[in-house]
Amino acid sequence: MSKIVILGAGISGHVAASHLRRKLSKQHEVLVVSPNSNYQWIPSNIWVGIGRMKSEEILFPLAPLYKKKNIGYKQALVTTFHPEGNTESTKPYVNIKYVNGELKGKTEKVTYDYLINATGPKLAFDMTQGLNPGTNKAYSVCTYSHAEHAWHALNDLIQQMKQGKKAKILIGTGHAKSTCQGAAFEYILNVEQELRRHNVRDKAEVIWIANEYKLGDFGMDGMLLSYGNNIMKSSEMVEMVFEDRGIKWIIGAGVNKIEDGIAHYETLDGEYKSETYDFAMLIPAFSGHGFKAFDKNNTEITEKLFKGFMLVDADYTPKPYEEWSVQDWPETYQNPSYKNIFAPGIAFAPPHAISKPRVNKNGTAISPAPPRTGMPSGITAKLVADNIIDIINGKKDVHHKGSLGNMGAACIASAGYGMTKGSGVSITTYPIVPDYNKYPDTQGRQLGKTFGEIGLAGHWLKLALHYAFIYKAKMKPFWWLIPE
Amino acid sequence: MTQRISKSKRFYMMNPIVQFFKFIWLSIKIMLVVAGGHGGTRKVNN
């Protein structure tokens, strides 16, 4: 009998738990430890942030589902890692602290045979002075509660605009090293459409601010894509959409301080500037959770497990951009020091960024961190689950592999909500991490599989994915037929 | 605001009948890209 402990119940943790439970017999224990009581389908937060969906439509409680499916669940957060056990027992364990109910505040030692760290990122609002959702007129859509809060503020502003107020809306990244530009891109297009729907578009100046060197970088060094019969750069596609929607943009901007209605930022030219606003939605930097690890003698060994995020089978040798290789990226998400620990999704430490790093004359690094969002999180979680099952069944090596350099991704970016008025920018990219050796003439990607489409179908597709993935997450009949 | 998308292109983008077929095409194409498999990179290129 094996015990698999999964830390986190986001897309990655939940996918791993679901597949493990489906494929392993009941003699094996699957236990999820997460501080969150709800599963949330994060890609739909955008629609909560414009008031077109309620939070209840994008989440469901975890406890009843896990009870029904025989998956253990503890609403707690992990505090320390002990991969060698302690002086009394060599059984590895993690210490957890309950965050809710009668056990709130109590700690517990949870042993494991296999550990999946799917704790995702810490939303590091504290890395930007004054950036805290709901203060200084700046908001976030990173969680459903943040998105609800953002919608209330935006709605208040729309009501004021209906009375004649002119407003400035700033949307983008809130730190020089932020990622997830895609979420901000979706939000700015949705907000712009909502302003038109409320007949106040002429009252608003809508501005994109981002740490990207070029529009459409998305933390992936941009891409060359097929668009209809043409081939265009993602920067050209985004520029076309922004100009058509009357959205202005500031790029190469590292936001470093937020005051009441003022965003201060540094540019790639080394200048210090500021932008005023009446409503802002700024994506923070992501960071690791600051976990600590200890060996059996209680000596700290954090560096064997973490480098901000968790260390896996990547090549972490520091190299200049010109020497970066697709082979640097992990394939199995297995920790090299402790083979029974895995970190899929956003929890693993990337070997380096994907976009070219840029530093201004003041020494400030302003460039996006690599995005590792929903779809790759699900795929890497499933392959980790499959490898653990193989090991339990007697295989010695991990056979299931999924490098971001040999994996396609779809980004169905909502560009406005509505069954007949909605729109979406559908982009697929293959591979996620460009392979400049394999595809030297097309900026590291395969053109037929890297394409973009704009239109109503994109909105329908995103909506269909919303319902399909919530169905899948609820583990309803034949859920496993829906791919990650 | 600068019109960067022509009226005919906009009609194509927002016409429900055209977009219904586009929806089917996109679903299949995305499925092929996303569910078309994944793997390592080190063995392939080494």
From TrEMBL, chain A:
Pfam family, any one: Pyr_redox_2
Domain FAD/NAD(P)-binding: 3-278
GO molecular function: oxidoreductase activity
PANTHER family, per database record: FAD-DEPENDENT PYRIDINE NUCLEOTIDE-DISULPHIDE OXIDOREDUCTASE, PTHR43755
Protein name (record): Sulfide:quinone oxidoreductase
TrEMBL record, chain B:
Keyword Transmembrane attached: yes
Transmembrane segments: 20-40
Keywords carried by this UniProt record: Membrane, Transmembrane, Transmembrane helix
Descriptive protein name: Uncharacterized protein
